[in-house]
């Protein structure tokens, strides 16, 4: 792959797509050590090669796939240690098409942390699809017979995931891509676009 | 191919330390079948009170390749932390309990607030479990897309409190 090729370029995810793949951005949120990167690695396998963003300390993973019959280029944005501030830079949310929120089946404190992440997500992206994953179910199998108010009240799908065994990892990411594509093709929140237009000036 | 528990050099049996001068000790059974146990002494010269132990561990792994390949990272980091604490004196019996705590994951602790180095110790402890459970692509039982439904009746997690406002 050439360094200057289209795979390496930073993308304006809102740019109307002409020829070439549809570009979408999927962001990961959740407390430290819940396994966000481990899940990414399990999904991408050999393609798990982070690029550093040119300006911000985040890890980017570019993934090419087919969704809804379209050629799709996905950028996954993963945190690179900013959890300490319990907050991400607005650029992390900018133009995102879907979000995966993760907590740890063995640590209740990470479930409690979701409310803060979700609030910040909605301040920045009021309408994008959000999916929730509880990781490490192999360490606490009991969690798979449990329900959680956070996902129920917010009408969010909950995925029971094990990054070590691979359980439901591919399902989670392919569903997230699918929802991101749906959102991009038919955004439900016109306001998002108007705001972004203003920001670009 | 060698499994995760058995490196090219053989199977690690015990990991130990000598405080002064700082030295890591590895007892291993060589890969050749029937061979007797061997002891490898690895001086840890670069360690200071402010060293980043993860970096020192990486140096040791490279210098003594392949002998440390099959040694779990958290075990190695723990030994280096004991050596590091021992630089300013003290007995292993006193140092070890303190160091053990650094590698223990308290399920109620907010790990977001830890420094990168402390967080790495907790992650190393978690990785030990992960590495025991993980099914890697080069294993015959590996399946890329593992789907499992958990559709049965659900009980409430008990992780929500009355005051929670989602």
TrEMBL record, chain A:
InterPro entries attached to this UniProt entry: P-loop_NTPase, Small_GTP-bd, Small_GTPase
Protein name in UniProt: Rab-like protein 2A
Protein's UniProt keywords contain Nucleotidyltransferase: no
Keyword Nucleotide-binding applies: yes
Molecular-function annotations in GO: GTP binding; GTPase activity
Gene, per the UniProt record: RABL2A
Lineage of producing organism: Eukaryota, Metazoa, Ecdysozoa, Arthropoda, Crustacea
Annotated keywords: Nucleotide-binding
PROSITE patterns from the UniProt entry: RAB
Similarity comment: Belongs to the small GTPase superfamily. Rab family.
NCBIfam families xref list: small_GTP (TIGR00231)
From TrEMBL, chain B:
Region (Disordered): 147-166
Annotated GO biological process: microtubule anchoring at centrosome; vesicle targeting, trans-Golgi to periciliary membrane compartment
Protein name from the UniProt record: Centrosomal protein of 19 kDa
Places the protein is found: Cytoplasm, Cytoskeleton, Cilium basal body; Cytoplasm, Cytoskeleton, Microtubule organizing center, Centrosome, Centriole; Cytoplasm, Cytoskeleton, Spindle
InterPro entries given in the database record: CEP19 (IPR029412)
Keywords: Cell projection, Cilium, Cilium biogenesis/degradation, Cytoplasm, Cytoskeleton
PANTHER family reported for this sequence: CENTROSOMAL PROTEIN OF 19 KDA, CENTROSOMAL PROTEIN OF 19K CEP19
UniProt main location, coarse: cytoplasm
Entry's Gene Ontology cellular component terms: centriole; ciliary basal body; spindle pole
Organism: Amphibalanus amphitrite (Striped barnacle)
Family stated for the protein in its record: Belongs to the CEP19 family.
Pfam (any one): CEP19
Biased composition (Basic and acidic residues): 147-159
């Amino acid at each position: 792959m050439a360094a200057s090729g289209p795979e390496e370029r930073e993308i304006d995810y809102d740019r109307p797509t002409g020829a070439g793949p549809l570009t979408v951005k999927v962001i990961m949120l959740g407390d430290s050590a819940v396994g966000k990167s481990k899940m990414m690695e399990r999904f991408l396998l050999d393609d798990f090669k982070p690029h550093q963003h040119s300006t911000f300390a985040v890890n980017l993973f570019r993934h090419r796939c087919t969704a809804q019959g379209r050629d799709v280029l996905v950028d996954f944005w993963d945190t690179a240690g900013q959890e300490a501030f319990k907050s991400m830079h607005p650029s992390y949310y900018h133009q995102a098409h879907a979000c995966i929120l993760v907590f740890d089946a063995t640590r209740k404190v990470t479930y409690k942390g979701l409310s803060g992440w979700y609030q910040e997500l909605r301040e920045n992206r009021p309408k994008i699809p959000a999916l929730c994953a509880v990781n490490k179910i192999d360490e606490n199998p009991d969690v798979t017979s449990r329900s959680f108010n956070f996902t129920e009240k917010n009408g969010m799908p909950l995925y029971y995931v094990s990054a070590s065994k691979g359980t439901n990892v591919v399902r989670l990411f392919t569903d997230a891509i699918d929802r991101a594509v749906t959102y991009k093709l038919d955004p439900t929140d016109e306001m998002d676009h108007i705001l972004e237009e203003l920001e670009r000036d | 191919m060698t499994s995760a528990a058995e490196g090219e050099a053989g199977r690690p049996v015990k990991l130990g330390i000598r405080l002064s001068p700082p030295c890591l000790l590895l007892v291993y059974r060589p890969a050749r079948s029937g061979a007797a146990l061997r002891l490898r002494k690895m001086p840890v010269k670069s360690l200071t009170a402010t060293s980043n132990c993860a970096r020192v561990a990486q140096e040791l792994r490279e210098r003594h390749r392949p002998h440390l390949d099959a040694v779990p990272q958290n075990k190695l980091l723990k030994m280096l932390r004991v050596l590091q604490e021992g630089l300013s004196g003290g007995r292993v019996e006193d140092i070890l309990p303190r160091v053990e705590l650094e590698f223990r994951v308290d399920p109620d602790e907010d790990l977001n607030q830890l420094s990168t180095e402390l967080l790495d110790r907790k992650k190393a402890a978690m990785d030990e479990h992960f590495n025991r459970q993980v099914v890697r692509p080069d294993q015959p039982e590996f399946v890329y897309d593992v789907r499992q439904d958990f559709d049965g009746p659900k009980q409430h997690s008990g992780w929500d409190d009355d005051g929670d406002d989602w």
